[in-house]
Amino acid sequence: MTDKSVERPRADLPTVEADTRPYWDAAKAGTLLIAECGACGKVHHYPRPFCPFCWSEDVHPREASGRGTLYTYSTVYVNDLHPFKTRLPYVAALVELEEGPRLMTNIEGCAPDDLSVGMPVEVDFRSLTEELDAIVFRPAS
Ligand SMILES: [Zn+2]
User: Fold this and answer.
1) pLDDT at 105 > cutoff 90
2) DSSP strand E in 17-66: where?
3) Cα(65)–Cα(63) distance, rounded to whole angstroms?
4) pLDDT (tens digit, 9 = 90+) per residue, 112-125?
5) Please, which pLDDT band fits residue 22 given cuts at 50, 70 and 90?
6) What pLDDT does 64 receive?
7) How far does residue 38's CA lie from ligand 1's centre (Å)?
8) Distance between Cα 57 and ligand 1 center (Å)
9) I need a labelling partner for 71 at 20 to 30 A (CA). Which of 28, 92, 97, 124 fits?
10) Which range marks the domain in which residue 109 is found?
11) 40 CA to centre of ligand 1 in angstroms
12) Rounded distance from Cα 76 to ligand 1 centre (Å)
């Protein structure tokens, strides 16, 4: 017999690697970082060890404004994975940052019916563990 109340794996925790550690540490400290290429000057996100535009490996983190617009979204009503099922319904979204890159995120602090494509949003951080915060967005104040 199995006891389902003991230690279920969390499906909402990112895998942190050496290349992405600075981004997660910054999020925990309340700052959104994106990656900038030292060769061509373009920015991208998610972070990679090379530039997706010119393939240079001269990439480094830089602070993003945290402002963007809601590019598209979907309200999720069914998800059996722990701990998502405790958060239903939630809004999965693609946010286009002021700097250009788009990132997968959640929209929080707002009823799904109050969302509209193109609306201004701003970054916020929700604690996942003592070391990790989720990068989420809210309607801009
Ligand atoms: Zn580049």
Assistant:
1) yes
2) 33-37, 43-44, 59-63
3) 7
4) 999 999 999 999 99
5) very high
6) 98
7) 7
8) 8
9) 28
10) 21-139
11) 4
12) 36
